[in-house]
Amino acid sequence: MKNKDEQRLSRLAAAQKISDAAKAGDQEAFKEGLNELCLDIEAQILEEAKSLREETDAAVLAQRGVRQLTSEEKEYYNALISAMKVSSKEGVKMALSNVDKAFPITIINDVMEDMRQEHPLLQAIDTRNVTGLTKWLMNTDEGANATWDELETEITKEIASGFADLTLDQKKVSAWMPISQDMLELGPNWLDSYIRTCLSEALAIGLENAIVTGTGKKMPIGMDRQVQEDVVIVGGVYPKKDAISVTDFRPTAYGDLVARLAVNENGKARAVKNLIMVVNPQDYYKIVMPATTVLLPNGTYMNDVLPIPTKIIQSIAVPANEALLGMGKRYFLGVGGKRGIQFSDDAAFIADKRLYKVVAYANGRAKDNNSFLRLDISGLKRLIPEVETVDSANF
């Protein structure tokens, strides 16, 4: 059984393969990466189940990630297991079609919580479970339109302009899960653990790519895209923001960047809060870390030091030499499960494992065009402390 470090590295490698394939539009590499990820998860869960075969204490099982199911969840998983055990391909398709319920909402809630815990970017943004909804009325102006004047037509229009409809059921993200007969024999609790882990990992990778740089065509609109009212959309694709070149993060330069976030796209002032900077892992260690690390008088280093408190988040979805700076909660992402698990013909069989497909619906975008900045950090210099001589008479 792999130790935790080995698990983390193998899953990171699979995640990178999935992310790269998604950007390149390589379906075969995408499927291959998903298979590697889920097979790794399955092997881990089968090993854990073997070690806990005689364990019945709920608290101990919960510590190992085996969640206690609600009656609705147990009914759903038992129906799935019965359908998945059918021997013929056509038979399992028909059996699964009779499992006509979508995921219980409690499963979707747990999947989303798992994603937030393991992926800081999803924790930093405004993520909502929108299962059962087809539209979301999004506040784009944070209440800046309040007025003490008489209610007139122009004021009504101004208030209405602070909201936008986001259609939720037209964008979907799919994941494949190989499920062996051995996994089915473990029962509903372990199947739940496997499905939730696969979903949270696979969906989070797809969602991070969309959050960072989604085109808006059959996917959410990324943080690096223009979303102003008069934006020119070509073939359903939103254009990227112009990259702002930065050479340092000293107070003057960083303050200038944050000042751009302190007004909305209509020029109204607003408070800046929940600042995040999203950068890919390699660029973090090669470029951003040297530019945000200071040596303390006691000889130790302090990392991620910026003039204004900012959470630096690593994401493999960010292109090289780029970073995104903005207010995390100014990105809205709605995720929901509308369809259950389906037998998939989209990929070949793997050994004795059948492949199943699950589809989640999601959509998202920045709440206004000034919520995020796209930065060019290729010329970012390491932080060298400045020493300034000041005449005591000026104190």
Give the secondary structure arrangement, pairings included.
Blueprint: H1 4-24, H2 27-51, H3 58-63, H4 71-84, H5 89-97, H6 105-118, H7 120-124, E1 126-129, E2 135-139, H8 153-160, E3 163-167, E4 172-179, H9 181-185, H10 188-213, E5 244-245, H11 251-261, E6 275-279, H12 281-291, E7 294-295, E8 301-302, E9 311-314, E10 322-327, E11 331-343, E12 354-366, E13 372-376
Parallel strand pairs: 1-11, 5-13, 6-9
Antiparallel strand pairs: 2-3, 4-12, 6-10, 7-8, 10-13, 11-12
Short structural summary:
The protein contains 12 helices and 13 strands. It is α/β, with parallel strands linked by helices and 395 residues long.
Explain how this protein is built:
- The structure is a single chain.
- With 395 residues, this protein is of the alpha/beta class.
- The protein contains twelve helices and 13 strands.
- The protein has helices at residues 4-24, 27-51, 58-63, 71-84, 89-97, 105-118, 120-124, 153-160, 181-185, 188-213, 251-261, 281-291; strands at 126-129, 135-139, 163-167, 172-179, 244-245, 275-279, 294-295, 301-302, 311-314, 322-327, 331-343, 354-366, 372-376.
- The strands form four sheets. It has a five-stranded mixed beta sheet. A four-stranded mixed beta sheet has the order 1-11-12-4. A two-stranded antiparallel ribbon has the order 2-3.
- A hairpin with a 5-residue loop joins strand 7 and strand 8 (301-302).
- Helix 2 packs antiparallel against helix 10 (188-213) and helix 6 crosses helix 10 (188-213).
- The N and C termini lie far apart (65 Å).
- Residues 155-161 have low confidence and may be disordered.
